[in-house]
Amino acid sequence: MTRLLDAREALIRSYQDQTAGQRIDERAVPSVSECLAILRLCQEALFPGYFGHRDVTSENLNGLLAGILEALQHKLQDQIVLCGGGAELSWTFVESLPSLRARLLLDAQAALDGDPAATSIEEVILAYPGFLAVTVYRLAHRLVELGLPLLARILSEWAHAQTGADIHPAARIGERFFIDHASGVVIGATTVIGRGVRLYQGVTLGAMSLPRDEHGKVVGGSKRHPTLEDNVTVYANAVVLGGTTVVGEGSVIGGGVLLTRSVPAGHRVILDPPSLRIQGPKPVTPEGEVLICPIDFEI
């Protein structure tokens, strides 16, 4: 019992000495679990019959959807109030769902058209991590537009953990957006992406080194991340950096490229292939002596 009391008192002293990281006598912060419940309700409303209730029919649709939207509005309102926002924003978000659904169906079709391994829209919606990342991004971006960046970031970081794609919810991304494989993709907050853009795994749309203030804190507020115009393709593990970097319409950035300057429309940026050395097995004599490799050439 003494050790328990000592541990309690030590933690209380820590709260008093270091006020960061605790909210004693303050308004509660949003709930991560409730934010994820909001996401699940959004998925049910956007793709009926795919998530949650799977026995949706023309006869029960009205009742099911009314229940989903009512629960969504109430849960979202509670979290918005915890962020200091007005309760009416919950209805504004709910009313955005039809337009978000239209965009997401275009994204799903882009995945189906762009990936020969995809066999159906159902497969994309249910199983593609890139589509899940884009779904959460579009919902989170709407929250950013409504002045709710904390709720947006909670959702986007959950998607990051689930899919490996780190899309900042403040980025601006056009329709028919497709991320193939998703793993390791990073899209910074001030990135601007046009229509019909395709990214592969490991792509980074990032910032160059940033200035710092007198306290050593990074100075934000400016455009730090690149712009990709319509119908750009960026292949695996390419890195595109800088707020003034613009990749022109229809251009292709090859795998492994590091790009820090703009590219005109309709161009390709590729690395010359490295020299590879292939060696065959090294034979050994009965005495254990290693002979010269019979196959040793470069390609």
Key structural traits:
single chain; 299 residues; alpha/beta; serine acetyltransferase, domain 1; UDP N-Acetylglucosamine Acyltransferase, domain 1; five-stranded parallel sheet; 8 helices; 12% strand; globular
Tell me about the largest β-sheet.
5 strands, parallel
> Element order, helices and strands?
HHHHHHHHEEEEEEEEEEEEEEEE
DSSP summary, beta strand count? 16
Spatial extent as radius of gyration:
25 Å
Q: What is the CATH homology-level superfamily of the largest domain?
A: serine acetyltransferase, domain 1
Characterize the quaternary organization of these chains: single chain
Strand order within the widest beta sheet: 1-4-7-10-13
Fraction in beta strands: 5-15%
- Which fold name fills CATH's third level, the topology of the largest domain? serine acetyltransferase, domain 1
Overview of this structure, please?
The protein is an alpha/beta fold and 299 residues long. The protein folds into two domains: 29-164, serine acetyltransferase, domain 1; 171-299, UDP N-Acetylglucosamine Acyltransferase, domain 1 (3 Solenoid), CATH 2.160.10.10. Helix content is 39%, strand content 12%. The chain is built from eight helices and 16 strands. It has helices at residues 2-17, 32-46, 61-82, 89-94, 97-114, 121-127, 129-145, 149-163, and strands at residues 166-167, 172-173, 178-179, 186-187, 192-193, 198-199, 204-206, 227-228, 233-234, 239-241, 246-247, 252-253, 258-259, 268-269, 277-279, 296-298. Strands 1-4-7-10-13 form a five-stranded parallel sheet. It has a five-stranded parallel sheet with strand order 3-6-9-12-14. Strands 2-5-8-11 form a four-stranded parallel sheet, with no helix packed on it. The chain is globular and about 75 Å long. The model has no long low-confidence stretch (mean pLDDT 92).
